[in-house]
UniProtKB/TrEMBL annotation:
Co-factor requirement: Co(2+); Zn(2+); Mn(2+); Fe(2+)
Provenance organism: Rhizobium anhuiense
Protein name: Methionine aminopeptidase
InterPro entries according to UniProt: Creatinase/aminopeptidase-like (IPR036005), Pept_M24 (IPR000994), Pept_M24_MAP (IPR001714), Pept_M24A_MAP1 (IPR002467)
Sequence positions that bind substrate: H93, H191
Length: 278
């Protein structure tokens, strides 16, 4: 049994109920998400071979503070960085360090800023210098998977429609969908109900209703979908060491579809690839 609750009267913790947000909340999310999108835009000009992922982390931290925001990941459940930087076969939750990016790498940068209590959550892939065609194709397939999932969002459908749209497309392109991680409700809380699976069937999952806010963030692999988490407790990698990619948007369900809160103001949702703004 799925419970829906007006967000204004919900307790400040994840109870399993799905929050329905009002117009004022949508405006708060627009501000937080656009700040995150602007930060990701700025990173497009500075991600280059030789850059340390720790430098990316410091850039994100400073960008947030300059704009009155705080990175949600910093000290979240013991995580000590302001962003996640996931390179090549790292699926998600890569921890920034003093290792330099190399020509031909692909890196996902995941940023969540908390602004006035609202969480703006988004991630993009960045090619480092010139990348191989196989990597470029993976980025294209992953971005298209995200946008197909978003196109399935409208009141009256179920969350499974998002997963079906992503899985059907990605597998038709001979890629695989990671099952171990999913999208999630977001708003005043960093992670809330419902979970948004990136695979499944259209008739499965909770019904989408106007006012819901959540992330869609498919992780797509060139090889098999299986992953493992390293000893640090965070870094997830592909078991077969195949390349992995991820794009993420935060969306809100509207009366006739959805609003993408984290769209790039500069049309840079796909850094290094032809501009395509959803």
């Amino acid at each position: 049994m799925v419970n829906y609750i007006e967000a204004s009267s919900a307790p400040p913790k994840n109870t399993g109920a799905i929050r329905l947000y009002d117009a004022e909340a949508f405006e708060g999310m627009r501000r937080a998400c656009q700040l995150t999108a602007r930060c990701l835009d700025a990173l497009a000009d500075i991600v280059k071979p030789g850059m340390l992922t720790d430098e990316i982390d410091r850039f994100v931290f400073d960008f947030g503070l300059e704009h009155g925001a705080y990175p949600a990941t910093l000290n979240y459940r013991g995580y000590t960085k302001s962003t996640c930087t996931s390179i090549n076969h790292v699926v998600c939750h890569g921890i920034p360090n003093d290792k330099p990016l190399r020509e031909g790498d692909i890196v996902n940068i995941d940023v969540t800023f908390v602004l006035d209590g609202w969480h703006g959550d988004s991630s993009r892939m960045y090619p480092v210098g010139t990348i191989k065609r196989a990597a470029e194709r993976l980025l294209e397939v992953t971005y298209e998977s995200l946008m197909r999932g978003i196109s399935a969002v409208r009141p009256g459908t179920r969350t499974g429609a998002i997963g079906e749209a992503i899985q059907t497309y990605a597998e038709a392109e001979r890629c695989s969908v990671v099952r171990d991680f999913c999208g999630h409700g977001v708003g005043r809380l960093f992670h809330d109900s419902p979970n948004i699976l990136h695979y499944g069937r259209a008739n499965e999952g909770p019904e989408l209703r106007e006012g819901m806010i959540f992330t869609i963030e498919p992780m797509i692999n060139l090889g098999r979908p299986h992953v493992k988490v390293l000893a640090d407790g965070w870094t997830a990698v592909t078991r077969d060491r195949s390349l992995s990619a991820q794009y993420e948007h935060t969306v809100g369900v509207t009366s006739d579809g959805c609003e993408i809160f984290t769209l790039s103001p500069g049309g840079l949702d796909r850094p290094g690839l032809p501009s395509h703004n959803g």
